[in-house]
Each structure stands twice: as C-alpha cells, then as structure tokens.
Amino acid sequence: MAFFCKKFVIGAAVLATLGTFLFGRDVVSYVKTAGTSVREAVKAEVPVDFEVERARKMVEDLVPDIRRCMHVIAEQQVDVETLQGEIQEAELAMKQQKEAMFTLRSDLESNETEFVYASRTYSKDEIRNDLAQRFDRFKVASDTVKRNAQILRAREKALDANREKLENMLSAKMDMEVQIEQLEARLKSVQAAETVSNLEIDSSQLTRAKSLIRDLNKQLDVKEKLLDAEGKFSGLIPVDTKTKEKRDVVKQMDEYFKLNVGDRVAIQLK
Q1: Which residues form a coiled coil (predicted)?
Q2: Is there a single domain that holds both residue 37 and residue 147?
Q3: Quick one: 100 and 33 in the same domain?
Q4: Model pTM greater than 0.85?
C-alpha cells in the first residue's frame, strides 16, 4: 500500500513539474479552465427533460425542511404561549402580594401593638418580619417577571422570524412549481417542434413518380411535335410530286424499228 502511495505522490509531482514547465505560473489557471470546460461540456450533454425533472425533485426535497420549520414554529408558539401564561399568573400574584404588603404596612404604621389576621393575633414585630419577607419575595418575583418578559420578547422575535422564513419558503416553493410547470410546457412545445423538423420521409418513391411523370410528358411532347410536323407537310400542294407520264408505244416502236414518217405511211397502206 505504501508503495502505491509513493508512486502516486511521485506521479503527481512529475505532472505538476511538467505542467509548470509547459505553462509556467499559469498552470493553475489552465487546470481550472480545463475543469470548467469539462464540466460545461458534460452539462451540455445532459438532456433538458432530465434537468427539469431534477429541478422538480429539488423543489420536492424542500418539503421535509418546510415540515421541520413548521414543527419548530409550533414548538416555539407553545413555549411563547406557556411563558405568557406564567408571566400573567406571576403578575396577578404580585398584584395580590402588593395589596397584602400595603395592608401590613398600614397596620405597622398604626399605634396598635397587636393585630388579628384569620383569627390569629400577631405582634408588631411579627408583622414587621412578615412584611420584610414578603417584600424580599416580591422583589425576586418582580425580577423574575422582568427576565421572563425579556425571554418572551426574544422568543416572540424568533417566532416571527421563523414564520417569515416559512412564508418565504412556501412562497418560493409555489413560485418554483409554477416555473417548472412553465418549463415543462415549453419543453413539450420544443420537443413537438423537433419531432416535426426531424421527421424523415422516404422520398425515393416520390422521386420515381416525378421522374415517370416527367418522362411521360416528354414522350407526349415528342408525339405532339411529330403530329404537328406531319400536318404542316400534308396540308400543302404537292409541288414536288411528278405525274407519271403515259407510255408512247408508237414512238417506242419507231425508235426500235428505226422507222421514219414515210415508212410508217407505207406500212399503213399495205
């Protein structure tokens, strides 16, 4: 294993040295550019319908995040409502305690030395001690309410921020779903146009039919030209046609027998 690791390190070093020798300080730039070109080339070969489906899947993958966000918001809402109830109860108790303290304070400032509460008699010192304890607890409760109020404001702020985040996510999800629907409609339109433009028709039969029609038209043109030419010659007076001469047998006999006019008369008188 160490041997292969050593060979790998040596090979990487050789490649780095060779790259530096060929490209100098720009070797890193060349490597980055080559990597970018490869990524773009690979991306260009990915079908568009696959990319559209990948975008739809990415939008669908937002659903778990949205559900988690909704769960967090629900928990925060419960915490806020619980804390609001605790603060309200504490403020009500403090109000009652404040009324009780001022009642004891009023009695403590009077000239009486003993006081009766709930059928029990208390001395002035007991009232003073009880009032001091009540006042200390009241201050602690007041500080607690203030801290809880600060916590409540922080939780309400976080709840509002998460609600806004959820609304933005839902709105973005709906927008992307609409955009994907539009992409799918455009893709179907493009695919339909590509199907029509890439439709291959066997034109050999059509070519042969056109060739036959062209040949037939040529043959008919030739026949029409011949008929037209024959019509032109047959419709004229036959000037060049020689009339067959009648045979002059008498003349032929005279020439054959070498007879003159007197001989022909003597032969006729005999």
Answers
A1: 73-107, 149-226
A2: no
A3: no
A4: no
